[in-house]
Each structure stands twice: as C-alpha cells, then as structure tokens.
Description:
The complex is a heterodimer of chains A (313) and B (116). Chain A has 313 residues and is of the alpha/beta class. Helices cover 19% and strands 23% of the residues of chain A. Chain A is built from seven helices and 14 strands. Chain A has an eight-stranded mixed β-sheet, with no helix packed on it. In chain A, β9 (202-205), α6 and β10 (237-241) form a beta-alpha-beta unit. In chain A, α5 (183-193) runs parallel beside α6. Chain A is globular and about 50 Å long. Chain B has 116 residues and is an alpha/beta fold. Chain B has a domain at 35-115: Cupredoxins -  blue copper proteins (Immunoglobulin-like, Sandwich), CATH 2.60.40.420. In chain B, the strands form two sheets. Chain B has a four-stranded mixed β-sheet with strand order 2-1-4-6, with no helix packed on it. A four-stranded mixed β-sheet of chain B has the order 3-8-7-5, with no helix packed on it. In chain B, β1 (35-41) and β2 form a beta hairpin. The longest helix of chain B is centred in the first third of the chain and has 25 residues, at 2-26. Classes of the chains: A alpha/beta (313), B alpha/beta (116).
Amino acid sequence: MAKHDHEDGGIDRRHALECMIWAGTGVLWTLSGGIPKSVGLVGEAIAAEATGFSFLQISDSHIGFSKPQNPNALGTLQEAIGKVKSIKQRPAFMIHTGDITHLSKANEFDDANQVISEARLDVRYVPGEHDIIDEGRGKAYLDRYGKGSKGDGWYSFDDHGVHFVGLVNVVDLKGGGLGNLGEAQLAWLADDLRGKPDSMPIVVFAHIPLWVVYQEWGWGTQDGTRALELLKRFGSVTVLNGHIHQIIQKVEGNMTFHTALSTAFPQPAPGTAPSPGPMLVPAEKLRGVLGLSSVKIEQGKKQLAIIDSTLAG
Amino acid sequence: MTINLTRRGFASLSLATFALATASLLAPRAKAAGKADVKIDNFAFAPETLTIASGTTVTWTNRDDIPHSIVESSGLFHSQAFDTNGSYSYTFEKAGTYDYICGLHPHMMGKIIVKS
C-alpha cells in the first residue's frame, strides 16, 4: 500500500467528489451531495450499500495487443469487467478514456464492445490515438461511438447535477509533440460552458492528459491550458485522463487531475526508461502492477488521499 | 620494412577517414539513387536527418512494441500505422527538405533532405 497526500487549496463541501480507483479495473467515483464520506477500500465499497451517485472509469484496453507485456489484453479487460459486475451499488454509467483498441481494427472494436457490454452499463467514450488509425482516420471510431457528438467526437451531458465534458485531443497532432484540442473544439467548449453556474461541478475527460505530465514523451496537451482557463471559474473541476497507463494525480486550486491505469499493460514512470513503450513485468507480477487504488477527497482536511492496493494482494 | 608499410597504411587510412568525416560534416553526401533506411527504435527515427538523391526510396521499419506512422508535415504523404517489424516506403522524386512526424507520437520528428 502506498499513500500520497497532497496539499489542496480547498474543495467546496457541496462539490466534493469522492473517488475510488481500481488499478487495472477502473475508477469508481462517488458524488455525495452535501456530506463527503470515506468509502474505504474497494472491497468495502463492493460490500457497502453506498448511496449517492457513482460512475466508473476504465481506460486503455488496447484490444488487439498481444505482445509479451500482456499476451491477452482481452482477458485482462474481461477481469476488469468482472470486477465491475461485482459492485452491488450500480454505478450510473462508465466512461472509457480511449485506446479501446490497439490498431483500430473492426474485430478489435467488436471484441471490446462484446466484453464491455457485459457490464450492462451505459458507456461514454472518447478516442485514443490508437482508435483512429483505420484507413478512414477516425471514421471507424465515429461510426461506432460518434452518435450525437460534434467534430471529431466531443460532447457533453449532465447527470445528477454534474456537467460532464468528453474531449478529443488525439486528432491532427502537430510536430513537437503533445495532444491537440484545436480551435473548433475550444470554441465549442467555451460555448458549451457559457451560462453554466460557477457552482456546477464539472468533470472533463479526454485520452491524453490535459496538463503536461512529461513533455519529452508527449504526455500532455499543447492547448490544454486554454481549456483549463475556460474551466477556472468553476468551484469543482475534475479532469480524468488515460494514455500514460499509470496513476498520476495532482490538485491545483479547485481542479483535480487524475490519470487512470490501463487494463492492458503498464508504462514506465516519466523518464525512467529509454522510451514510453509498454513495460515488461514478470507474468506473475502483471496483476500486481494492475492493483487497486482508492481516492477520497475530504473537505476540511484539505488533502487528497490515494490508497493503492494490488489486484494480486 | 613491414613496420614502414604498416605505418604508411595506417597513415593513409587515417587521412581517408579524416577526409570522409570532414566531407560529411561540411556537406552531407547525397546517397546514390536507390534505397535508404530509417529505423524506428525507442520512439525515435534513426537517422533523424537523412540526405538522399532524388528518386531514392526510403523505408521506415518499426522496431518498437507499439505502432507508429509517418506523416509528412505539408501533407505530401501519410502512412497507415505499422506495428512491430512493419515498414512503410516512400519514393522522393523532387529535391527539397521534408519534415515528418509519427502521427501517433508527434514528439517523434525526422527530416529527409533530397538533393537533385
């Protein structure tokens, strides 16, 4: 177990988001209206009769990947969905923060859909760069998941008083290297947020981290700060990303940034390997790398605690 | 005798090496029209800058565990993603400087200089 505490500028009581992470399985978020409460470890959460609103995040399932780092990415996705099915308190829905497939092949999308649908949850997707490398450069993704979205697949919706925004930052990438939102999407976002009260909690999700995690490996979004500027006035903003196959979290003012683990394979910590390629761990340790984590935000303590425990443990 | 020959041989070899190094430093020599290779290892193109004669076909080969693609900056060509040991080839007919990136990992940048 590892616990990381972060100093926090303060989170409004009404808008506190509680979050539980399953490393390698998904992230369970709970929004409690009024009184934030600790939900403990995942095991307890499954057993507890939690009230309030929760949703899941899974990411980077990379269906089609079969290299030694994980010869069976579909199998580990199946294990993740098995965990999702065991939650007694039904999450309202699930988000998938991209890289559903490894090579954007039709059979990869089909396999992913078949397994994910076993969770019997609504799933909201945003694409990763691996999901738009079909011949039509994203047509395969949009044909399947783009219904009701704008542009390359961005959209927003409201649930339980929370405004959710799904952004696309993997299209039309420019040399030098980071994710890209582009003018059209930023204009849409400004328009989408116009008129929303400052007190409305916002959850933004996209594949590549919206803030710069590690420039040298392209782990960030070049115009991400422009999106964050638009979100600054809100009392509670939660930014959920994938792409880097590891948990990195930070709190800045009213904004909480969080990246999810992959269900397929781990990637090295920034700068610890010659490249960000898939990280090989001994087979018996793979599920150990894909452990469990829980995150809670407690008003008053002004700190955010992350507790990780492994799937194997 | 033997020593002298060796010395002479060594001296001329050094001179040749020096001349070659100097030439390649001052003006990269255009390779003869034909074929040239760029390897992709650890999310990097090698060589990062390649100078070729017009008409040369460049083949990029992916030696990483993750797919890459080749996207020319002005839109001249845009490969499909190719996975481990996969490759992509393009024949450069016109002289000029061509910048390219990996469409999946745009921090990967390379350059092809085509001499007429």
